[in-house]
Design goal:
alpha/beta, Dihydrodipicolinate Reductase, domain 2, nine-stranded mixed beta sheet, seven-stranded parallel beta sheet, binds NADP nicotinamide-adenine-dinucleotide phosphate, Gfo/Idh/MocA_oxidrdct_glycsds, nucleotide binding, Gfo/Idh/MocA-like_OxRdtase_N
Length: 309
């Protein structure tokens, strides 16, 4: 065991098993010491049913990662920050903008690190695309994020409840890339939200946005896509067309695919967390969450047929 971060993980579910456990295992300077989950247990670590029990039983912990659905994130983050631990938030960092602002203030008061992770920003092609775009002028952007919710989110009732984000759960990944690659501030102009009659969250959404310099951004999020899935952002610029595909992991200039490094979103995020925790730094960008909040604020609601998993 290293002298670095001693981590406790909360919410041992799909993303924790798929991404967090392997990424933690390959990151220097951080060790998984304990897990708090109501219905699951981690191998080779201390296990607890909730965060309070974990903090009491494993006082050596100095960092906590929160991998539950967003509705449960705030209370747990307050508990962990109040106990003086560095905190890593899965995306989205909270169910509301104001609660994340409160967490920033609390982390600052406690002198600990707070990391709002946006995993898609660490996709293999995003940094290169951002740097290329910075050398030219954007004319327009089109985002198409279309996937099959039954394939990607089976048996996740929280995602359809208030605060569960619905199609904005994947859509916020597109918005996190958008707000990373556009050099100036993005603002939302209008939105439509298609909400199944038996749900609190949308299954489809369209957003009209603009960049600070006035370029139009048209966005479609749809969870009813069977067959080929799309996670594409097309940026028309004065220097030609740039396309980010596969959630930011591939990029093309015109038809020519550009080289990228290995795909390692979660290991890169854990390296970042270890780094900022060493300086008690806060890395929380609210821009993607603010755009989702704005869409819920001004969006026109369209009732659609009931959704059954
Ligand atoms: P999940 O498997 O449904 O939930 C994770 C764990 O959280 C569950 O196993 C459960 O553990 C606990 N949990 C569930 N509902 C809860 C509630 N209402 N209150 C407290 N704890 C609850 O979800 P997930 O797919 O891992 O997603 C979790 C977060 O990661 C979401 O914010 C999501 O946007 C993000 N994320 C997911 C993916 C993905 O591919 N799934 C990718 C990137 C990011 P216990 O019952 O054992 O406590």
């Amino acid at each position: 065991m290293s002298d670095g971060l001693k981590l406790g993980l909360v919410g041992l579910g799909k993303i924790a098993r798929d991404q967090h456990l392997p990424a933690i295992a390959k990151t220097d300077g951080i060790d998984l010491v304990a897990v708090a989950s109501r219905n699951a247990k981690g191998d080779g670590v201390a296990n607890y049913s909730d965060l309070a029990a974990m903090l009491a039983g494993s006082p050596e912990l100095n960092a906590i990662v929160l991998c539950q659905p967003p509705q449960a994130r705030f209370e747990a983050a307050v508990t962990a920050l109040s106990a003086g631990k560095h905190v890593f938030l899965e995306k989205p960092p909270g169910a509301t903008v104001s609660e994340v602002e409160a967490l920033i203030a609390l982390a600052r008061k406690q002198g600990v690190s707070l990391f709002a992770s946006w995993h898609s920003r660490y996709a293999a092609a995003v940094a290169a695309a951002r740097d290329w775009i910075a050398q030219t002028t954007i004319r327009s952007i089109a985002i198409s994020w279309k996937e099959d919710v039954r394939h990607w989110h089976p048996g996740q009732p929280w995602i359809w409840e208030a605060g569960g984000f619905g199609v904005f759960d994947p859509g916020i990944n597109a918005l996190s890339i958008l707000t990373e690659i556009v050099p100036d501030r993005v603002s939302l102009l209008s939105a439509t939200l298609e909400v199944p009659s038996n749900c609190q969250a949308p299954i489809g959404a369209t957003l009209t946005m603009r960049t600070g310099s006035g370029a139009a951004i048209d966005t479609v999020f749809d969870w009813r896509q069977t067959g080929p899935q799309s996670w594409d952002i097309i940026v028309e610029t004065e220097a030609g067309t740039l396309r980010l595909a596969e959630g930011g992991n591939r990029w093309f200039l015109g038809d020519a695919e550009q080289p990228v490094g290995a795909e390692e979103e979660y290991p890169a995020m854990y390296r970042r967390f270890v780094d900022i925790a060493g300086r008690n730094e806060i890395d929380v960008d609210l821009a993607p969450l603010q755009l989702v909040a704005d869409a819920f604020l001004c969006g026109r609601h369209i009732a659609t047929e009931a959704f059954h998993d």
